[in-house]
User: Fold these one by one.
Assistant:
Number 1:
Amino acid sequence: MIALVTGAGSGIGAAIALRLATDGHRVAVNDLSLAAAKTTVALIEAHGGSAIAYGADVSDAPPAVAAMLTQITHDLARRKCW
């Protein structure tokens, strides 16, 4: 199962992303700051989980959200074991 967590670069969003990953979900980690999202991905991977970081401003919906979802779909098609 795949989970998309927005605002996952820190705080509650990061904690939710980590919990989902430790429960066995593959996590698409989104934050306005790509660097912050990558930090959460590193934490998830350090705990044995699987995640990919995406930087996007979801308040700029639908353009930013549509672009992010297209990228996630592309990444899923490309990475069979993601």
Number 2:
Amino acid sequence: MFVGRESELIKLEKMYSTNEFQFAVIYGRRRVGKTTLIREFLKNKESLKQRKAEGRYKPTKAEWAATIREHRRYKEQLKKKGDIK
């Protein structure tokens, strides 16, 4: 049963619907429903694995590089805030 996480689902849907790179961090204590939230969000979404299997997903080097740059930027922001070492 999935109850009480509508606001989180709305935020994820909003991020998913943009044409920009988005990076969501989902964290919390154990047994609070993080995995269930992700599974519920992905329930009706086409998977990357499915797209790759059908030959419809072929990221360019530029897309991979942009993703890596965004990840590094985000990591630096977390370091500055003291959330990670």
Number 3:
Amino acid sequence: MRIAHLVLAHHLPGQLVRLVGHFKRSGDVYIHIDLKAVDRFKGLDDCHIIPDRQAIWWDGWPLAWAQPALEERPCPGSTTTMVC
């Protein structure tokens, strides 16, 4: 069984690339990059970037809006098993 790693990112692209490198060994990686992110996220070629980006405030409802976008993405046409 492959694992779907769901990541909400907003800065520190170098750290994200290292984290993704570890995650890719065991499954697919799906990333939501905050709409407010000013950093350039490169080196994520083998990942699935969620196109419907939202501006996230880490203590409010927008965070709850981004999570379903991540949770729905891996399922259609994927062999990845989703466990929440």
Number 4:
Amino acid sequence: MQDREEQLGLSRLTPREIEMIGLIALGKNHRDIAEALKISHRTVEKHLEASMSKVGALNRAHLVALAISSGLIPPIEFGHLVKEIGSSTPD
């Protein structure tokens, strides 16, 4: 897993960027993430832009797919993340 993370550039992501990717995997939008983390939605956008740039992701879905396939964040199981990220799940 470590080799795959390094190969994709995922090892360069900050803990905050990883947290945001997990929230995106839960279906959260920029404003939801901003509210949950008590930051501005523009800060969320900047963190996500940086994350996508670091790993070469084409969009948010690609970013989540790379993170899940590498084991950086756990896959969604029965509508919930195996390891809870954030305070709620999508409706």
